[in-house]
Amino acid sequence: MNDARKVALVTGAAGAIGRSICRRLLDDGIEPIGIDIDSVGLSELEKLLGIKTICTDLDNLDGLPSALDAVGAVDILINNAGVLHGEKIIDQSLSDWDQTFRVNLDSALIISKIFLPGMIDRKWGRIINMSSYAAKCGGLTAGVAYTASKSAMIGLTFSVAREFAGHGVTANAIAPAYVMSPMVSEQLTPEERENQLQAIPVGRFCEPEEVAHTVSFLVSPLAGFITGEVIDMNGGLQFD
Ligand SMILES: NC(=O)c1ccc[n+]([C@@H]2O[C@H](COP(=O)([O-])OP(=O)(O)OC[C@H]3O[C@@H](n4cnc5c(N)ncnc54)[C@H](O)[C@@H]3O)[C@@H](O)[C@H]2O)c1
Q: Rounded to two decimals, what is the model's pTM?
């Protein structure tokens, strides 16, 4: 690895976890570039951290290459953006299923395709895909589209890890459960929140900074031997 300042592209940067990741990477001496559809959240992030951001809709897959055209070399890609729907199988519409997959999974594939060649040329790269504990448990409160898209994120991670391990590029996934964010504070009913809080052995929800800490570890120079791994962050809900 050379000593030039690394650049990290972080999707879902205006969200709770994305913001924490940007802040932590900046503290680590890495230059984060934030991507989100939330222009207000991105402006706040720019003011707060003084970082570059790009406002774009990851649901518009065809528009992604031109939206990211101005971004130069990217050493670290954090595919973190996500949407959560609660529909279980019988109620799942195909249109919501497709939208969930486009944002949660397909955008990660497209963005990886754009930046992997540069990582391979430079013989160094880190890709982190945000999966979820839902992928491992079938979704406690999460719906089927979310759960299936987060399972597929693990398959994408394994595929990238296998194909590019010999090129200095690692790919890992993080599978958190119940991180304090609007996904927990707004999208769960008070009863669901209380039930999950009772069930989590650690006795609390995860903090976004804890997920950012795992990202920081996985992108660090000495983590180059870790690839194709799924890091669980579920407070003891499941051991494996
Ligand atoms: N919060 C949790 O409990 C939890 C648990 C497991 C996994 N995750 C995953 O972590 C990631 C971050 O979630 P979070 O908790 O910070 O939630 P969040 O809702 O705060 O952040 C998600 C971000 O993604 C952005 N986004 C959504 N659709 C987009 C689109 N079409 N184009 C561009 N940006 C879009 C949102 O604007 C938002 O800023 C997600 O992938 C989520 O599935 C979260």
A: 0.97
